[in-house]
Design a protein that fits this description.
The complex is a heterodimer of chains A (474) and B (160).
Chain A: E1 3-8, E2 17-23, E3 29-36, H1 42-45, H2 54-58, H3 66-81, H4 87-119, H5 130-136, H6 138-159, E4 168-169, E5 172-173, H7 179-206, H8 211-216, E6 223-228, E7 240-244, E8 250-255, H9 260-263, E9 264-267, E10 276-279, E11 289-290, H10 293-299, H11 306-316, H12 329-348, E12 368-375, E13 378-386, E14 392-398, H13 400-403, H14 405-419, H15 427-439, H16 444-448, E15 456-462, E16 467-473
Parallel strand pairs in A: 6-11
Antiparallel strand pairs in A: 1-2, 1-15, 2-3, 4-5, 6-7, 7-8, 9-10, 12-13, 13-14, 15-16
Chain B: E1 5-10, H1 20-32, E2 38-42, H2 49-55, E3 58-65, E4 73-78, H3 94-105, E5 110-117, H4 132-159
Parallel strand pairs in B: 1-2, 1-3, 3-5
Antiparallel strand pairs in B: 4-5
Helix pairs in contact in B: 1-4, 2-3
Classes of the chains: A alpha+beta (474), B alpha/beta (160).
Chain lengths: 474, 160
């Protein structure tokens, strides 16, 4: 008799999802799915709005990465206006985007994943959370708060006000950076740098304990996808698309992000509201690829800041091999935080950073615009069409979490096959199934625009739906 | 020196009445000025809010609820709850934030949670007709509490 195991909802991720694991007649794992059970109506919601409202409207999609949506949306509006924004404006947008990466990565690493990494995958679930970390490792919990605050503070300082900062606008930014603000941010750099350097040192040492998880956590061949700069280096804001395969071969390079529909297909599966993008040239579902920190470090030829480049060289190894296990998203996240801190400092010290030429002004000059940037979780695409009055008639958003949908499903299956023993799984096994999802730090509010609650329920079901067993973690 | 009061309104401002916390924060800041209190509007409570809580003398959280008749207002005192061991998500509770403030910073200021029960949580940027008039009422209640706190602290400081 075939059976289905359901984990619903998945905990310590952003949003609401469930996992089902199907067993065959021999009680072996046959298939597994990661279901996004929220519905995003956002693309319909914005129809009829003036395109100039889109950045501030889109920023409200998510409380964790509003700046990512702000950036991609503003870039789409730049395209509608057909303007090239001033250099200083692009640099200032980059700084805010990097600050966003830092705060989001800090939340993922320190507050959502560190309980597994510090206390152990099999530790008591009652204390395997941020409160357990606070008790056992208060300094690390404080470091997480300080690093996240560093990123948030930069966003607030640049945004100019606490509520609804609308600093990034179509055409650039609406106010230049003041010398006082620049110096305020620069003064915070050393503290943030100390935190990330000691965290990297600790985690690289600690991760040797997770050999088994590294082997089984979505450790398989896929392509990797993301933006690189003109020289092939790590890029977060602009650039061109590069795709590499599991052996490190460049599958496609210098793709114009504005032509994404030529190379990305969007499949829909009946079990999830989350779309499943794939690389069209390979087809569905073989066109699976991963995005986000691990992908960015796998596709880059180098990193443009010295300390992060050194860490990247160590990460990729002497042969610059592609890193396949999704467990390494955690380390990739820390390296990107380091890059972000270094790059913010570099940009703030550039001579034109205080220039008051920060905005290009124009009306709609094109009826269509596409904006692509790298969000913390991966490549983010906003695509709008407008009518002659500048009102949105159609919108399509491809969210970073969506790009990883196929890989997350495959990862759940791999972990289930490795750890699921019989129809009464242990709590540690359940936690690993969730932990492989957490490696990707999925943001389901972004990808579906809703919020949910996080208790966990496991159901073992027969093929005809009868519940054979149920456990719950509240 | 009086520790500033902190008002944290949280919820999703694009889900109808879930955004009422933002509206109350905005209303208070507009009416009394941004220096009246430390104001935070957020989609959800996050760990770094614990630092702001630890620095405040009075903390007021404002959230939407959905378990009482629409429009009804509740107010309750919040205590740090060391037993609140639910998995940390982006959906932290006021109790969890206060616990973080106590454990990490050794501070547990007087904390209250105001809620208004919402009627409509569909996609949309405006409050329902039931909740909208309650924004001013709750803003007034919060302002009264802040004024009382400031007066009490000023008296205490003067006598010290």
């Amino acid at each position: 008799m075939s059976q289905t195991i359901t984990i619903d909802p998945v905990s310590r991720i952003e949003g609401h999802a469930k996992i089902t694991i199907e067993l065959d007649e021999q009680k072996q794992v046959r298939d597994a799915h990661f279901h996004i059970t929220q519905f995003r109506g956002f693309e319909k919601f914005c129809e009829g709005r003036p395109f100039t409202e889109m950045p501030s409207l889109m920023a409200r999609i998510c409380g964790i990465c509003p700046v990512s949506h702000l950036v991609a949306s503003a870039k789409a509006c730049d395209a509608i206006m057909a303007v090239r924004i001033p250099e200083t404006a692009a640099k200032l947008r980059r700084i805010m985007n990097l600050a966003q990466h830092i705060q989001s990565h800090a939340l993922s690493f320190f507050h959502l994943s560190s309980p597994d990494l510090l206390l152990g995958m099999d530790s008591d679930p009652a204390t395997r959370n941020i409160f357990g970390v606070m008790q056992a490792h208060p300094h690390l919990a404080l470091d997480g708060i300080k690093l996240r605050k560093f990123g948030q503070q930069i966003i607030e300082w640049l945004g100019g006000k606490r509520i609804h900062p609308a600093w990034i606008v179509p055409g650039g930014v609406n106010e230049p950076l003041t010398e006082e603000r620049r110096d305020q941010i620069l003064a915070e750099i050393p503290g943030a740098m100390q935190i990330i350097l000691r965290t990297l040192e600790w985690f690289k040492e600690a991760s040797v304990k997770y050999t088994d998880e590294i082997r089984h956590f979505a450790n398989f061949n896929t392509m990797f996808f993301g933006l690189v700069d003109e020289g092939g280096g790590l890029e977060m804001y602009d650039g061109v698309i590069r795709i590499v395969d599991a052996q490190g071969n460049v599958v496609a390079d210098r793709l114009d992000p504005a032509n994404y529909q030529d190379f990305i297909g969007e499949a829909v599966e009946p079990y999830s509201y989350l779309k499943s993008p794939y690389y069209k040239n390979v087809g569905y579902p073989e066109g699976i690829y991963r995005v986000g920190p691990l992908a960015r470090l796998n596709i880059a030829s180098h990193i443009g800041t010295p300390l992060a480049h050194k860490e990247w060289e160590e990460f990729r190894g002497p042969n610059k091999r592609v890193i396949l296990s999704s467990f390494h998203y955690h380390l990739a996240r820390l390296i990107e935080i380091l890059y972000g801190i270094e790059m913010i400092e570099k940009l703030l010290n550039e001579p034109d950073i205080l220039s008051d030429r920060v905005r290009a002004v124009a009306g709609p000059n094109s009826l269509e615009g596409i904006g692509v940037s790298e969000a913390p979780r991966g490549t983010l695409m906003h695509h709008y069409r407008i009518d002659k009055h500048g009102l949105i008639t159609w919108a399509n958003l491809i969210i970073a979490t969506g790009h990883n949908n196929l890989a997350m499903n495959k990862g759940v299956l791999q972990v289930a096959k490795a750890y699921l023993k019989g129809t009464q799984p242990t709590e540690g096994m359940l936690n690993r199934v969730e932990a492989v999802i957490r490696c990707y730090d999925p943001c389901l509010s972004c990808s579906t625009h809703a919020v949910g609650h996080m208790p966990l329920v496991l159901q073992v079901r027969s093929h005809d739906g009868e519940i054979l067993g149920e456990t719950a973690r509240k | 020196m009086i520790s500033a009061p902190l008002v944290v309104g949280y919820g999703n401002p694009l889900r109808g009445d879930d955004g009422l916390g933002w509206e109350i924060v905005r209303s208070l800041a507009e009416k009394h000025g941004e220096d009246y209190a430390h104001f935070i509007a957020a989609h959800q409570l996050a760990p770094e809010i614990a630092e702001h809580v630890a620095a405040a003398g009075l903390v007021i959280f404002v959230d939407a609820a959905a378990h009482e008749p629409p429009g009804s207002i509740t107010c309750r005192k919040v205590s740090a709850n060391a037993d609140d061991t639910r998995p940390a998500t982006h959906h932290m509770t006021p109790e969890a934030v206060l616990t973080m403030a106590r454990v990490l910073y050794g501070k547990e200021p007087e904390t209250w949670l105001y809620t208004i029960n919402g009627m409509c949580f569909d996609v949309g940027a405006s409050l329902s007709g039931v909740v909208s008039p309650k924004v001013e009422e709750v803003s007034w209640l919060i302002a009264s509490q802040i004024d009382d706190y400031v007066k009490t602290m000023e008296r205490t400081t003067a006598h010290a």
